[in-house]
Design a protein that fits this description.
The chain is 53% helix and 17% strand. It is of the alpha/beta class.
């Protein structure tokens, strides 16, 4: 389950379709209940994401995506194994749509691919994955690419 909110950008059905199919695949691949875990997604602009980046990470510059997990990585394994029956919040994603557009052009692939990647990337942060240590980064990248390949969203 997810909810999408917009902050200072226009609502867009295309964004929502991309996010919907990407998140469904993420939950399916990770064997998590999308009905019992809520992901809150805020789509916004560079100015707003910069404010949030400064407020929560003490980094005074815009970024492409921010992730705010509600669980530790170990807790996710328990949730997966217990097949929780209650509803809970997995976490929050904040995505800068203009940064997605910029990076899609920069990397030479579609907007769909870049937005899908941001959603998958943030989803794995919500599951406790990170990319600071090289071994963790490798594991996270493999998971991200697997989902994008499952969706047939490849690099152009």
């Amino acid at each position: 389950m997810y909810k999408i909110e917009y902050l200072d950008i226009k609502e867009n059905d295309e964004y929502e379709k991309i996010i919907d199919k990407t998140l469904k695949k993420c939950f399916e691949v990770e064997h998590l209940s999308s009905e019992n875990l809520l992901v809150s997604i805020l789509l916004t602009n560079p100015e707003n994401i910069k404010k949030l980046n400064r407020q929560y990470r003490n980094i005074d510059k815009p970024t492409d995506v921010l992730s705010f997990p509600m669980f530790e990585k170990e807790d996710i394994e328990n949730i997966r194994n217990e097949k929780i029956q209650y509803k809970d919040i997995l976490g929050d994603m904040v995505i800068s749509i203009s940064q997605v557009e910029t990076q899609a052009k920069e990397y030479g692939h579609s907007f769909e691919r870049e937005l899908s990647y941001m959603v998958v990337h943030s989803f794995y942060h919500l599951l406790g994955y990170d990319h600071i240590v090289e071994a963790d980064k490798k594991q996270m990248r493999e998971k991200e690419e697997f989902i994008l390949n499952e969706l047939n969203i490849t690099r152009n």
